[in-house]
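Worked problem 6 (solution included).
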Amino acid sequence: MWKRDGKDMTPIQRAREFIRTKVQAPALQNPDLPEEFKAKVKNSNIWLEKFTRVGDLIVYLKRFQLGTNDPTYQAMHGHGLKTFEDIAVDFENEFTLWANDCTRPTDFIVGKKYGAHEILIFVRNYDTRSGGMFVLESGGKPGCVVIKATLAGGHYPNEWLEIPNRLKYYLKSKANKDTSEVNFGEHYKPNAAILETPDIPILTFVRDVEGDAFTYQGVFKYVTIVRESDGSKWFELRRDPNEGGIIEDGAFKARVFAEETKASRQSSREQRLTRLAAAPKRPVRTLVLTTEFRRNPDVVAEVLERAGGTCESCHEPAPFARRSDGTPYLEVHHRLPLAQEGEDTIENAIAQCPNCHRMAHFG
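Solution. The predicted structure is:
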């Protein structure tokens, strides 16, 4: 079923096709649906093509909870057509294996260009008129700020104070419709997140002029706020030399990967093998100051299940149980290291006790 030109479709291709078949195509082919609503469908088609991860697309569909009073909902249903609200649950059930496949901060590569849609999908804001500052929360608190800085064309142009390490960036502002006065409110959510959490990571995307793609410049940190006599306000931001384009420290990344592996082990073996069959054998690389590998948690989970709590090198039981969940503590080692072009597969991995793992690396 999921083939195109005789080739198997990727999960995101399948996901797009699901939505096109259920919602987009029937609406655009319906001769009685008014053009104003077809225009909305065409606009959502533009967004649909911008998604590269299934998890991001699930989040996008879930936001459509407008209810029966929404004009688009009424028009579509009035012509016997399905809407995003109608397919959201079925879509999530169909693609549940990839529900956690969302864009992460470490997916962005310093020096690479990104379109506005790619950035907005990451911050989960789907309005291209929504401005240039966004707050991503973690545990109900600001976790990071994302900024899109345009250097020319605005009334208050941002600028480099020192390329590419120090940036002058104007606070989020709103214009009074009656007086045209611009208010750089320090209480606005993105401004407050920076001022109240001075160490917050600021993922920084910069372009020269309106219409250009943005270049990811890495993680910046707040230095100071400058309040000008004309009422304008700007932040001085400085590149974080300790981060080099990554906002996840080692401990945080280890925690995230441990949770992903735990979730993989809690899924069925059939589900894991299905994901493994569709997964790339070469791990995704994240280019920052060094090259890192995003390991596949399904490989780790499958190898640990295969070992059954026994080291596959010395054949002794795991030396202790994990404090987090009580499972036998073993570590997964790649026979041919990933840095030497080894594959992130169960065939190239082995479960080892900490002693054997350290010996494999340093013995």
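Discussion: The chain has eleven helices and 16 strands.
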